[in-house]
Amino acid sequence: MAKRKTKFMCQECGYESPKWMGRCPGCGQWNKMVEETEVVGTGRRGAFQHSASTGVAAKATPITSIETVSEPRIKTELVELNRVLGGGVVKGSLVLIGGDPGIGKSTLLLQVSHQLAKIDHSVLYISGEESLRQTKLRAERLGISSENLLVYSETNLEEISRTIEKNSPDFVIVDSIQTVFHPEVTSAPGSVSQVRESTAELMRIAKTNGIAIFIVGHVTKEGSIAGPRLLEHMVDTVLYFEGERHHTYRILRAVKNRFGSTNEMGIFEMKEKGLEEVANPSEIFLEERSQGASGSTVVASMEGTRPVLVEIQALISPSSYNNPRRMATGIDHNRVNLLMAVLEKRVGLLLANQDAYLKVAGGVKLDEPAIDLAVAISIASSFRDKPTRSTDCFIGEVGLTGEVRRVSRIEQRVQEAAKLGFERVILPENNLGGWTAPKGVALVGVSSVGEALKVTLEG
Fold first, then answer.
1. Whose C-alpha in 86, 144, 160, 410 is 20 to 30 A from the C-alpha of 125?
2. CA-CA distance, 251 to 270, in Å (whole number)?
3. Other Cβ atoms within 10 Å of 332 Cβ, number
4. Which residues touch 43 (CB under 8 Å, ≥6 apart)?
5. Helix-strand-coil split of the chain, %, nearest 5
6. Cα gap 450→444, rounded to integer Å
7. pLDDT of the chain, 459 residues: tens digit per residue
8. In 3D, which of 361, 108, 332 has the Cα closest to residue 241?
9. Which of 10, 218, 228, 181 shows the shortest CA–CA distance to 99?
10. Strand 94-99 to strand 212-217: parallel, antiparallel, or no bridges (unpaired)?
11. DSSP 128-182
12. Can you tell me the distance from the alpha carbon of 74 to that of 201, in angstroms, rounded to the nearest whole number?
């Protein structure tokens, strides 16, 4: 006879406990333990867990004797998606896409399905949240129609596995993983056990048959993908689709990629006919920039292999609190505190009694050292209430002694600034040699933050 066993499982890390605890011993999170029921003694779950076995014993092989085969990547018509994936879709890969509700995850994958179907690839689109008619209505709105695109509405994992085996598609889209359930797991769909078992089975299908599988994951209110962190460890690639629902621009970035870089970023615009690529995101981030406003600077940042020009805004005002407020959006809060300490100690700006609010316009998140100089100049500009020139662009890392240090890929950054009409670039002095600047751009090398302030705010 099968016995039912009650246990408590952490929704964050998958830690199991026979009793409820307020704080998970595994990850330290509070109020993440959820009661689940499992069936033991049937003998069937063990067979399912070992279903991926091929019956052939593996053996250890010297790495020097392993032959490598270069698998050609399958490119979609969306160049931005290809860039984020590392050059295209890899056969047999398992890709997880997460994002807020209504952000456009299903729209993106339906468009990708249509593009792959047009180049004679069979695609199976499995929808666990919409009926076939609802999916058809959305496809008609996007202008999607192809005989190679199969639509299947199902949440039972065993039925999904049989359908994949029967149709042998080249690509599979599962929308979403939180709706899929295995009948042998007694917990509700979306629980840790269901997500773990469903992802493991889909991974086995992808690796065994060489099928590229995209799965959609819901996100929590904190912005992370719902379910255990184990889900992100199991897949090959994790993509996040970000942006405000009430704005048209969307940002696709990779936080994990076994087949490419995690520094790439893709920009899309949501329109009536679906998502369209943004070829030059720098123009978008700067199109609403105010002229002659203090506290505004432009930095040439690198997102993977692409230079992007974004505006950094700072607002410095006297504080009415004993502890001044420090708020930052799109920039690390600790970096702002560090740069303000450098300006106070090395330049003499009295910022200890000032509130500071910083923001990267356009919703972009910047985390590279080359933005330090632009942040420091914007803080000083707002504090002194003196605007910088609208045709100035800033590049450079700032050290604790106030020095401006060299950065990488300076030539690409300056070329992007020249393309958008910037006439002067303030950059580290050590970055001046060994290359030629574009015509119409004056390069100003600085060795310290104080020197940069003299050039931009006092010169």
1. 86
2. 11
3. 13
4. none
5. 30, 30, 40
6. 14
7. 456 677 888 877 778 888 899 998 888 888 888 887 765 554 444 433 444 444 456 789 898 888 877 778 999 999 999 999 999 999 999 999 988 888 899 999 999 999 999 999 999 999 998 999 999 999 999 999 899 999 999 999 999 999 999 999 999 999 989 899 998 887 778 877 888 889 999 999 999 999 999 999 877 655 566 555 678 888 999 999 887 666 788 889 898 999 888 878 888 998 888 999 988 888 888 888 888 899 999 999 998 788 999 999 999 999 988 899 999 999 999 999 999 999 999 999 999 999 999 999 887 889 899 999 999 999 999 999 999 999 999 999 999 999 999 999 999 999 999 999 999 999 999 999 889 899 999 999 999 999 999 999 876
8. 108
9. 218
10. parallel
11. SSS-HHHHHHHHHHTT---TTEEEEE--BHHHHHHHHHHH--SEEEEE-GGG-B-
12. 24
The strand order across the sheet containing 424-428 reads: 326-329, 354-360, 306-318, 296-303, 392-394, 424-428, 442-446
Distance CA(18)–CA(16), nearest Å, equals 7
Structure tokens at 11: 């929704």
Say which residues have a Cβ less than 8 Å from residue 321's Cβ, sequence separation at least 6.
355
CB atoms within 10 A of CB 421: 11
- Are 217 and 226 in contact, with CB atoms under 8 Å apart? yes
DSSP state letter for 74: B
Amino acid residing at 191: S
- Amino acid identity at 24: C
Beta-bridge mates of residue 97:
216, 239
Q: Return the SS3 of 286.
A: helix
Locate all alpha helices (DSSP H) within 287-366, ordered by sequence: 333-342
DSSP H or E stretch at residue 85: helix 79-85
Phi, psi of 255 (to 5 degrees): -105, -10
Peptide bond into 176 cis (omega under 30): yes
Closest CA to 458 of 350, 354, 347: 347
- CB–CB of 292/331 below 8 Å? no
Q: What is the pTM of this model?
A: 0.75
What are the two backbone dihedrals, phi and then psi, of residue 388, each rounded to the nearest 5 degrees? -85, 165
Six token digits for residue 251: 């940002």
